[in-house]
């Protein structure tokens, strides 16, 4: 199995294991306005992350990752911005798809802004490169900690992901918190195909327009 794949799965598993949670994980989803549980310090979390990786054997090149973890802890303690930290890794032109780069930037952005989803996600995006992946990872981790009310409303209000609307996503989260399974409507597949076909035509039209004057 690809070691990158194992490590990419280890990060969310380790985060869910090590992030302090209320007595009931369901309570956190059903009562989003509850204060988030107190986090460990960045160095304490990263130490736990190293132990988790070692015990679960999720990384073949562990020494490289552990050296990066030490750099992350020191950088967060210095209150260094995530883009500056990324630049120190040689990623001043953007985060590559290399899993150690992705994990390092995501952990740094999250640990620098544990209670602020907007700041954490924007810090990851400002690093450039594979920003859709880093933003999604950081958003998932910090969102699990702070709850839905801390996700910027203006972002949700402008999000267009039809037929999977924000209301539908909230319903999914609610059903999951109750331990129930929400069935996807059968028409979602056809609706998604039609939407994607429309977006494909938009992208192709935009590309063709750029080939014509005025350039």
How much of the sequence lies in strands comes to under 5%
DSSP summary: helix tally: 11
Tell me, rounded to a whole number, the average pLDDT: 79
Q: Report the span from N to C terminus.
A: 47 Å
- Overall outline: globular
Describe the protein in words.
- The longest helix has 22 residues, at 188-209.
- It contains eleven helices and no strands.
- It has a domain at 3-148.
- It is globular and about 45 Å long.
- It starts with a helix and ends in a 6-residue tail after the last helix.
- It is mostly helical and 215 residues long.
Quick structural summary:
This protein is mainly α and 215 residues long.
Key structural traits:
215 residues, single chain
Strand-helix topology:
Layout: H1 3-18, H2 25-30, H3 42-56, H4 62-77, H5 82-88, H6 99-112, H7 117-126, H8 131-146, H9 153-158, H10 166-177, H11 188-209
């Amino acid at each position: 199995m690809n070691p990158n794949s194992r490590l990419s799965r280890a990060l969310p598993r380790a985060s869910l294991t090590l992030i302090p949670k209320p007595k009931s994980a369901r309570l956190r989803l059903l009562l989003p306005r509850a204060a988030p549980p107190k986090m460990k310090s960045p160095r304490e979390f990263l130490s736990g992350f190293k132990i988790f990786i070692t015990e679960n054997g999720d990384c073949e090149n562990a020494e490289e990752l552990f050296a990066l973890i030490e750099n992350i802890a020191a950088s967060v303690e210095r209150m260094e911005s995530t883009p500056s930290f990324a630049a120190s890794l040689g990623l001043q032109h953007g985060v590559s798809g290399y899993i150690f780069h992705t994990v390092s930037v995501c952990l740094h952005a999250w640990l620098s802004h544990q209670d602020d989803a907007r700041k954490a996600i924007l810090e990851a995006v400002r690093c450039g490169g594979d920003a859709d992946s880093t933003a999604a990872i950081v958003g998932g981790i910090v969102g699990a900690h702070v709850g839905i009310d801390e996700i910027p409303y203006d972002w949700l209000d402008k999000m267009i992901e039809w037929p999977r609307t924000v209301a539908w996503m909230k319903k999914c989260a609610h059903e999951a918190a109750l331990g129930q399974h929400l069935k996807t409507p059968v028409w979602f597949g056809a609706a998604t195909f039609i939407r994607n076909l429309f977006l494909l035509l938009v992208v192709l039209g935009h590309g063709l327009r750029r080939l014509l004057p005025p350039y």
